[in-house]
Design brief:
heterodimer, A: 324 residues, Alpha-lytic protease prodomain-like, Alpha-Beta Plaits, 2 domains, two-stranded antiparallel ribbon, disordered N terminus, B: 161 residues, alpha/beta, D-Maltodextrin-Binding Protein, domain 2, six-stranded mixed sheet, 6 strands, transport (chain A)
């Protein structure tokens, strides 16, 4: 049984989890650096300001992950019979909603700037006695800071997939898409430089739509998990492969006449309920316990398997089987 | 959604390269409304509001440190100065509408007008009677970045110690 205290994870997953936490700490530290550097050059460009806020927002899923990680390690107890795994989902939802709200605010700001035909003013800086247009250092900063963010994103996605951690996955997808934000802000500043005043607001709008999309995806996926949707893959479209493996395993058990699986995700692990109709309507306690242990052995996300002997499969499961 | 993101991914680098290509040879930044072009070898419309030693309005010609700076700046651009004396609010409105090219009058860098129009970097400081120090700026039309560049470069060259 997997009720031991700690992360309950197998050695390999524990290692990945430690790596994920390390990557997220590095990400938070790096974000702190970029936020400071961009603050020095941000100026009057709407696109730059939007990209700057996006940098600040990118910390949210990372912090949510690091905080949730402390919680998921707690063992379950009578008051908390399912453990604390759901804290990942709660963090995911909070980060998603924050992205949605701020994304909407930024989109509104850039649309207002377009409607009012606001011409952004960018002056100069005096560098060692030379008067230099401020747009140049802006473009330089936005070009340089994107590279480490891209590398971190790629490293994180490699960890998120085997861990089946949706929060980490959403975060790494955001980091991977970060270069688009930087590219858009460079387009905006270059537009101002060329006297195309509206290009800045349009670039800002593109960035804020990206933030909105991230927010929408995260909110939808987190809400769907909190509503105990069928366990699914990382993108939330196909059923989780573990469900069909359990069904196959059940089909191999001699005493099982008919069965159906109800699996929900508790963060990166699953709570699985199996409804079984035994042959001749009889089953022993020992058979049930053995079957549960067997199913939990299948894979580490099968964290908590409960078997319920029934006379017939519940309608809502047989009408829409988990395997589509 | 996926298709859109891919299009965006292809579009963005293209968008980034285009302005850079177009920028080769041309001077950056450019004025959307062409203020610098119009002023050079033409007329520069300057609004001033009376303020201490910066802008002194009395019978006879305008005087003060900023009047002198602006006259030198205009000479530098081979331009004639057309002066307008008025209150700050009225001048800022004219600046926004494109009727003026430059506004001065001992304006501090904390001016609320910076929301509506462009502002130069502070080029000097001023200590008032209470001993409070403020940084002095001039105002330019919003988004006329080539003109702002020219003004700031002139201030850097002539006003910096």
């Amino acid at each position: 049984m997997n009720s031991s205290p700690g992360t309950h994870l197998p050695e390999e997953q524990k290692r990945l989890m430690r790596r994920a936490a390390k990557l997220e700490w590095i990400s938070v530290g790096y974000a702190a650096c970029t936020i400071t550097v961009v603050a020095l050059v941000v100026g009057n460009s709407q696109a730059m300001r939007t990209a700057w806020v996006e940098d600040m927002l990118s910390v949210l899923p990372q912090l949510a992950f690091l905080i949730a990680l402390r919680w998921t390690r707690k063992p379950r107890k009578p008051r908390q019979p399912y453990g604390y795994h759901r804290s990942m989902g709660a963090g995911h939802l909070v980060a998603g909603v924050a992205l949605l709200v701020v994304g909407a605010m930024l989109a509104y700001e850039s649309i207002t700037a377009l409607v009012k035909t606001e011409h952004p003013t960018i002056g100069t800086v005096n560098l060692f006695g030379h008067t230099i247009w401020q747009g140049w250092p802006m473009i330089a900063v936005m070009t340089v800071i994107v590279i480490p963010a891209l590398i971190l994103g790629r490293l994180k996605i490699k960890v998120a997939k085997p861990l089946h951690n949706k929060l980490l996955y959403a975060d790494s997808k955001m980091a991977k898409a970060d270069w688009q934000t930087n590219a858009a802000s460079i387009v905006g500043v270059a537009g101002i430089g060329l006297g195309i005043w509206w290009l800045d607001a349009v670039a800002a709008l593109v960035i804020s739509l990206g933030i909105l999309k991230d927010g929408w995806d995260s909110t939808r996926s987190a809400t769907s998990d909190l509503l105990d949707s069928r366990a699914s893959d990382l993108d939330g479209t196909d059923p989780h492969p573990l469900v069909s493996r359990i069904e196959e395993q059940l089909a191999r058990m001699n005493w099982v006449e008919e069965s159906a699986v109800r699996a929900r995700e508790l963060g990166q692990v699953q709570h699985i309920e199996v409804f079984v109709v035994p042959h001749s309507g009889q089953v022993g306690v020992k058979q049930v316990a053995e079957a549960c242990a067997e199913l939990e052995e299948l894979d580490w996300p099968a964290y908590d398997v409960v078997m319920i002997p029934v006379s017939s499969i519940p309608d809502y499961l047989s009408e829409a089987p988990a395997r589509v | 959604m996926r298709v859109k993101t891919r299009t965006l991914q292809k579009l963005l680098p293209g968008m980034a390269v285009l302005p850079l290509l177009a920028g080769c040879g041309a001077q950056i930044p450019v004025d959307p409304e062409g203020t610098l072009e119009d002023v050079r070898s033409g007329t520069i419309s300057v609004g001033v509001s009376p303020n201490a030693d910066f802008v002194e309005v009395s019978n006879g010609p305008l005087q003060g440190s900023e009047i002198q700076i602006i006259q030198n700046f205009a000479e530098n651009l081979d331009a004639e100065v057309e002066w307008t004396v008025g209150g700050e609010e009225q001048l800022v409105e004219a600046l926004e509408n494109g009727d003026l090219d430059l506004v001065a009058g001992g304006i501090s860098s904390k001016t609320p007008w910076a929301e509506q129009v462009g502002m130069t970097r502070p080029y000097t400081t001023h200590v008032d009677v209470d001993g409070k120090e403020s940084k002095i700026v001039m105002l330019v039309p919003p988004g006329e970045n080539a003109f702002l560049f020219e003004v700031e470069r002139f201030l850097d060259r002539t006003q910096m110690p």
